[in-house]
């Protein structure tokens, strides 16, 4: 198993959490439980440029190449991150998670914790992280369980996840060392959605390019950005200098969205996954 320098992970030694399970086979069936990095763009991770470039798609593609029978399901865990007490957690575990678990699951990837960002959430999560893994172990006893954390890191959440992973012998794969500027998305990134949508954007100017795309100049915090999108239709409100278009492409204009992984960040997350999980490809 290839390991990552521990002094780069959460700023402390995690040697006791890098468990060697031996070699596992390429899975037949997997479950991914995640937050915006898994489903923030609707059906794929925020802010990959399309559905083929988030960490899930990259992992899935490699598994499919080795095992064409491979299947997986993506489940949003944002509601679990938002739980503030034990009753809320039990409701999610029993009514949302448990229906997705089965004895034939080979792999469960947990990628939550980033949004456990209030005192009540953090307090509940200390025990909730353990109960999450315990529920998986009970309903899917043959599954290899991996926890990916965290693009946005909290020391309290880190401790809760570490303790849960240590108690239940779960691989913890830290990804905070990847969160560097070059691995983030950016303002003006164009995202191709999997379903038609619309976007309204206040512009400084726009033009229709020879290939039919709309090239739009817009300001964010006083800085001008330019992006070009393909649209099936559009409407201009010149008085408000607002352009509204319909199609599959949208433009990133929000700094929080832009702080999510870009394609390079998602590629690094997938690379970390395969470095830390010892899989046989034969």
Short description:
α2 crosses α8 (263-276). With 282 residues, the protein is α/β, with parallel strands linked by helices. The chain has 8 helices and 13 strands.
3D architecture notes:
The protein is α/β, with parallel strands linked by helices. It has two domains: 6-183 and 259-280, Rossmann fold (3-Layer(aba) Sandwich); 190-258, no CATH class. Helix content is 30%, strand content 27%. It has helices at 36-39, 55-66, 78-81, 86-97, 119-139, 155-168, 255-258, 263-276, and strands at residues 24-25, 29-34, 71-76, 107-111, 144-149, 171-174, 190-202, 205-208, 214-220, 223-229, 233-237, 242-251, 279-280. Strands 3-2-4-5-6 form a five-stranded parallel sheet, with helices on both faces. A three-stranded antiparallel sheet has the order 7-12-11, with no helix packed on it. The longest helix has 21 residues, at 119-139. The protein is globular and about 60 Å long. It starts with 23 loop residues before the first strand and ends with a strand. Residues 1-20 have low confidence and may be disordered.
């Amino acid at each position: 198993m290839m390991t990552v320098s521990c002094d780069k992970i959460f700023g402390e030694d995690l040697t006791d959490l890098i468990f060697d399970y031996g070699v596992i086979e390429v899975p037949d069936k997997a479950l991914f439980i995640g937050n915006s990095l898994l489903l923030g763009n609707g059906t794929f991770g925020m802010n990959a440029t399309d559905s083929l470039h988030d960490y899930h798609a990259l992992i899935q593609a490699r598994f499919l190449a080795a095992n064409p029978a491979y299947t997986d399901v993506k489940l949003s865990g944002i509601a679990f991150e938002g739980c503030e007490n034990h009753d809320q957690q039990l409701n999610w575990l029993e009514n949302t998670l448990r229906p997705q678990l089965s004895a034939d699951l080979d792999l469960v990837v947990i990628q939550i914790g980033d949004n456990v960002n209030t005192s009540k959430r953090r307090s509940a999560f200390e025990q909730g992280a353990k109960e999450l893994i315990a529920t998986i172990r009970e309903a899917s006893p043959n599954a290899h369980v991996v926890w990916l954390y965290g693009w946005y890191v909290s020391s309290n959440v880190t401790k809760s996840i570490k303790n849960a992973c240590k108690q239940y012998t779960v691989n913890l794969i830290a990804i905070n060392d990847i969160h560097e500027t070059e691995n983030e998305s950016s303002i003006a990134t164009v995202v191709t959605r999997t379903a038609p949508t619309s976007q309204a954007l206040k512009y400084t100017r726009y033009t229709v390019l020879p290939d039919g795309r709309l090239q739009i100049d817009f300001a964010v915090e006083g800085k001008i950005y330019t992006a070009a999108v393909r649209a099936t239709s559009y409407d201009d409100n010149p008085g408000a200098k607002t352009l509204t278009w319909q199609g599959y492409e949208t433009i990133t204009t929000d700094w929080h969205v832009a702080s999510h992984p870009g394609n390079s960040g998602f590629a690094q997350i997938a690379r970390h996954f395969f470095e830390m999980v010892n899989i046989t490809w034969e």
